[in-house]
# Entry
Amino acid sequence: MHSRQICLASRPAAQLEPQNFEVRESPLPTLENGEVLVRNTWLSIDPSIRLRLDDVVPSGYLPRFELGEPLVGLALGVVVDSRSDDFVPGDTVSHMLGYRDYAVVSATAGGLGGAGTLTTVEPGTWPLQWFLGPLGSSGLTAYVGLFEILGIEPTDTVWISAAAGAVGSIATQLARRHGCTVVASAGTRQKVDYLVDALGASRAFDHHDGDVGALLADAAPDGIDAYFDNVGGGHFSAALDHLRPHGRIAMCGAVSTYGTTAPMPSNLFQITAKSLRINGFRAGAYNHLYDSMRSIVGPGLRDGTMLYEESVYDGLGSAPLALIEMLNGRTRGKTLCRL
Amino acid sequence: MHSRQICLASRPAAQLEPQNFEVRESPLPTLENGEVLVRNTWLSIDPSIRLRLDDVVPSGYLPRFELGEPLVGLALGVVVDSRSDDFVPGDTVSHMLGYRDYAVVSATAGGLGGAGTLTTVEPGTWPLQWFLGPLGSSGLTAYVGLFEILGIEPTDTVWISAAAGAVGSIATQLARRHGCTVVASAGTRQKVDYLVDALGASRAFDHHDGDVGALLADAAPDGIDAYFDNVGGGHFSAALDHLRPHGRIAMCGAVSTYGTTAPMPSNLFQITAKSLRINGFRAGAYNHLYDSMRSIVGPGLRDGTMLYEESVYDGLGSAPLALIEMLNGRTRGKTLCRL
# Structure
């Protein structure tokens, strides 16, 4: 029995390219006690993996991938063999050994980075892949960022960047449902229209249309109370300038800075001047809130008051393309690879 | 009756120079109802005023000074005339119209920037000027930063920068008294020795001795839990690298960045990677904690278990020199001008 895996073939230059990856086939080891063999069916394509492709990864983050090493990421699959009492063939599971077709997963280990423990998924009537998206880590990230980190109030004006993406699109709708005034930004005109027309953002802008700070000031002339940061860099800097006193930032990702060495914003003194609060977070620390999140997002998606889009790429070999397209802003909603 | 005032004569280039200031004499207006005439006796010389000397001040901060305009700052003085029922001649007061010998102060207005309302000071047996220092805003800033913003615990390793300064020296001692391991940094060998030998820092370093990050890593090889930032710039960046997961930063000042726009490599992603929390604050929002702070710092100073130093400059005309010397790291403890 063999597994086909997306491996790092070379470190990317400025732009990530298909030739930075290769598919390698390797024999699967015999299952040890406590291990489970999973046939993956859906792979989550997430931006932060970009950081681990570089030679130097920010300290405190997960380690870099070595050349030739298979990538990892969130995945859904079906158990095909088990030497664990907790899993039987046919079980649907989520785990962290994505970017491959078959995976041997420990049923007991805490998962890579503590965020990927093998978990049974009971999709019920939901499309399975939604447990990687709005009912999975994307939805949890949006929920935690808004309610646990930013502590949004209905009176708040909230800016959400990358708002047409997997996390941003859920965050935009959750903030709107909570009564907030939502300013949303994205990278194409089409996405901007979608944010206002379909997702209910009060104002939206394409960050390519000029200086981000000027676009934000135009969209929120009285300033913002909270910023959900999926982009970093110049977006983060613009938020510092336009937050009102005692404003908050939730830093969940910094896709604009991945693979770059952007200089530090020189307006950090705004944090002191306006008594701002900034929190980085990773949704993996809030798994106890999955039920709370799903109790809002699930009914919303079912009754059509919330929307969700997917960009699906078919076949393991398309996973690198999916990643490149997403990082270049050419996907919408959740980016997935279907096996 | 005339008042002599330190006015901005020209905007500073890279270095602040004595010729950027001039003493101007102007007639005092007749007291209106609700106003008090104060003869200033002590002027607080604080670093953040540097920001207001430039053409462009960070938005959200107090406005710039115009050319020819008198500076303002915390001051102590004696009431010499009053048209307010709340103040009589002979009262000792604090207010925000420093950098001059006589000031007409409103007894009712909220003060410049909301931080300087005319307040009666009852020094008791304390040296009066301590109400600008360890028992005043410097002490409050240290106390609030440690206990309200960072929420220090005895098990924490806390880094305090500019630790031989007015705020840092009190913060160093309060953190040590709380049981923390204190890493302190300053700008001269003499200050470093003082921090360890007199103020009880566990480790200390001179930030001129090499890369701040390397010096910090050497002083705290297992990382830090909290950082009290009085310096900003490269110090802030080093803290991001060396904070442990869920670490905290209190941003109270950024003296290294005042008057500069030096860019630096960005490691802001550390905030996300390690789930850091960063809070800017201004002590002026915590005036209700003066009594709590004084109940710790007062007895500590009285019984000699806490120490406090002053750098005193005599005469109004020496105020610019005091400011320049402080910004260049040549003062220790609280910098004051005595009239």
